[in-house]
Amino acid sequence: MSTTMALPRHYLVAADFDQTLSFNDSGLVLSELLGAANFQRKVEGLARSNLVQQGGELAYLIRHDPEFRGVRREHLVEAGRRVRLKQDIPALVDFLERGLEGYRFSFFVISAAPRELVQSALAGIVAPEHVFGTEFEYEPGTGEVRSIRRVPAGYGKVAVIEELEEKLGTAPERTIYVGDGSSDVHVMLHVNNREGFTIAVSENRMLARIAKRIVLSDNAFSIVLPVLDQIVGRRPAEIRALFESYRLTLHDWEKERTDRVTIRASSWQPEGAGAGAVVLQEGLTP
Length: 286
Ligand SMILES: [Mg+2]
Hints:
11 helices, 9 strands, Rossmann fold, binds magnesium ion, seven-stranded mixed beta sheet, alpha/beta, 20% strand, 36% helix, two-stranded antiparallel sheet
């Protein structure tokens, strides 16, 4: 038994929602519910124009697009119920709530999707006050969205992280951020800059370059893997045992990070030199 009584290391664990904890974009689920057409095309058009922060396109459409303008709180709650979640989020939340000896985790979801929608999707799993999403104000008479109060997309996610670090009193190097897409670029750069830890759960090209670790799995509990491995420093056998305590088995665990680099011949090369691309793959042991 240890004779020293150290305070547990307190970590803020923040995760994106769409395609990080779920399979589909919640905007797509909402547009299907409303019968609104061309959601994807509209989002792409908005993204190209850089009018809104990446990830904030749905909030913009709800406020300004005729097909979305009748949205009320009930639509958001119903769309949340229809979202397909990744497996074992309850186990993930349980693990983080329990923590480990010497480690304490506070878990929050930070999404650009409407807050009511994410709260509804995670009802009974994540406490509503641990969910940050786009906040609307509603018309008292009709219940329709009247204005946007806040959008945690792009740089908006950084603001939420800073707010939470201050509220919890956690150090920036003890922030762990998990995300899948371009809406997470700003926040990941910010967390990395301050010595925090970032996990990408997709092969998004931009994030793959930024995130410290990448985990690809249909199971949300998989994000526990890099946390145990890199932050807590558990050995693979201990990690497998912890997964088994949740009746989960690790299959095909490849603990590697693949760096892809393309090298092209440049103009100084003598004539006749091959101009093809070379792809180097290197597995790094973290
Ligand atoms: Mg996402």
